[in-house]
């Protein structure tokens, strides 16, 4: 077992990291060993007269919320993993070099595999991505698009942000 290298963090170190990186100190009740409540992050607001450093800290907090709440959600729906904060340390421009797409897809696949176990009651992962995939590939679950948006520069998922009709689409049941 190595004695050198990055240290394992405990609750006190995570609280310090939140304070240094995001500009707020979470309550101990918001923290567990490896995650924090989403409400702890949403309580931290930016003000019109904020400094550039405060804006950067708030931006880091918002990106952390997106990572833990939308792209890599767990089954609780209310907690975010603390290790995403480590990825967002220092220059935020460096975070864009990571292969986020493959990580989101791998995390979703991992959660779908775990969800296939008979004892599993909930599935984590980016369900928006799964829904876009299902609507694009499985015609029997796809809603009818009332108004089509054709724009080559929009993300693929934006084609579903239009009025839709669910008439004739199965919902909440499997036949």
TrEMBL record:
GO biological process, any: meristem maintenance
Residue ranges annotated for the Aminotransferase-like plant mobile domain, each copy included: 37-160
Coiled coil segments of this chain: none
Protein name, as recorded: Aminotransferase-like plant mobile domain-containing protein
Domain of life, per lineage: Eukaryota
């Amino acid at each position: 077992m190595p004695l050198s290298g990055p240290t394992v963090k405990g609750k006190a170190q995570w609280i310090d990291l939140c304070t240094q990186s995001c500009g707020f100190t979470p309550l101990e009740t918001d923290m567990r060993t490896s995650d924090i409540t989403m409400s702890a992050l949403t309580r931290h607001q930016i003000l019109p007269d904020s400094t550039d450093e405060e804006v950067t800290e708030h931006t880091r907090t918002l990106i952390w919320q997106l990572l833990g709440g939308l792209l890599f959600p767990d089954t609780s729906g209310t907690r975010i993993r603390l290790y995403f904060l480590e990825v967002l340390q220092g220059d935020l421009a460096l975070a864009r070099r990571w292969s986020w797409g493959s990580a989101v897809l791998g995390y979703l696949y991992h959660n779908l595999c775990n969800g296939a176990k008979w004892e599993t009651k909930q599935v984590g992962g980016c369900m928006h991505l799964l829904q876009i995939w299902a609507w694009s590939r499985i015609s029997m679950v796809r809603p009818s698009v009332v108004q089509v948006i054709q724009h080559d520069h929009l993300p693929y998922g934006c084609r579903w942000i239009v009025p839709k009709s669910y008439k004739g689409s199965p919902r909440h049941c499997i036949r």
